[in-house]
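Hi R.,

As promised on Friday, here is the backbone we talked about, encoded as structure tokens. Could you run it through your design pipeline when you get a chance and send me back a sequence?
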């Protein structure tokens, strides 16, 4: 049985005549926890943007659930959720409104209007904010009034509330202190809590720059100059692999 959820087939991407991704082939299978390593400028963010459909490749095909990405409707595409490095929060909204934005794909215009008018239910949003260790004093605060670490966790809560099948994350531990990094990492990697309540997608790919965070991932991708240099089990990662990408 084919358990591949997301696939890149011979993907290349050019921007202003610069080749950012070069003939990338990749399969992400159900349940995999993948760490993506590479220097700044190696193509990590662009790879994530191609995987979630934000960027259309210059060449090659992206397949989600064994169908071409271009053939899928908006609801199917929302089965991928992304934590962006630049967060992409809406500064005119409160923290809880931003988290609720993760629900917009599953709801209609009336829900969106209620969200903006601050009269929709925030019960579910608060649950995910609590999982991200956000204090209730932050719930109704404008995003501009939050610290960098609080904004980071709002963005994570917004992504998790979406209930997607695949999570892509670009440096999601930025702005977090060591204790919070451990909490958020466990939140992302352990997709159910002790009450068997789903917290995060069971299939994830996370771009990292800290090697000490690799524990609990089962696969590691290395990228350099837009090429996948290695795609191996974490337990097989050696210094010689890292020397090829750093």
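Update: got your reply. Pasting your designed sequence below so it's all in one thread:
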């Amino acid at each position: 049985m084919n358990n591949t959820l997301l696939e890149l087939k011979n993907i290349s991407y050019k921007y202003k005549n610069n080749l950012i991704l070069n003939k990338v082939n990749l399969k992400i299978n159900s349940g995999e926890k993948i760490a993506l390593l590479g220097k700044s400028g190696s193509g990590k963010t662009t790879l994530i943007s191609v995987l979630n459909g934000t960027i259309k490749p210059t060449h090659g095909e992206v397949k989600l659930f064994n169908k071409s990405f271009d053939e899928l409707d908006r609801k199917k595409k929302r089965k991928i959720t992304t934590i962006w490095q630049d967060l992409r929060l809406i500064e005119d909204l409160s923290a809880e409104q931003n988290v609720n934005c993760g629900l917009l794909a599953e709801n209609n215009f009336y829900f969106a209007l209620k969200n903006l008018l601050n009269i929709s239910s925030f019960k579910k949003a608060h649950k995910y904010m609590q999982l991200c260790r956000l204090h209730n004093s932050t719930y109704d605060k404008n995003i501009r009034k939050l610290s960098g670490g609080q904004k980071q966790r709002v963005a994570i809560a917004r992504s998790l509330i979406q209930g997607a099948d695949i999570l892509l994350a670009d440096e999601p531990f930025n702005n977090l202190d060591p204790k919070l990094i451990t909490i958020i990492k466990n939140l992302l990697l352990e997709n159910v809590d002790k009450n068997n309540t789903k917290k995060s997608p069971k299939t994830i790919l996370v771009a990292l720059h800290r090697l000490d965070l690799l524990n609990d991932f089962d696969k590691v991708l290395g990228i350099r100059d837009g090429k996948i240099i290695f795609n191996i089990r974490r337990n097989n990662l050696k210094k010689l692999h890292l020397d090829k990408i750093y």
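One thing I noticed while checking it: The chain has two domains: 1-73+208-246, 80-163+166-200.

Thanks again,
M.
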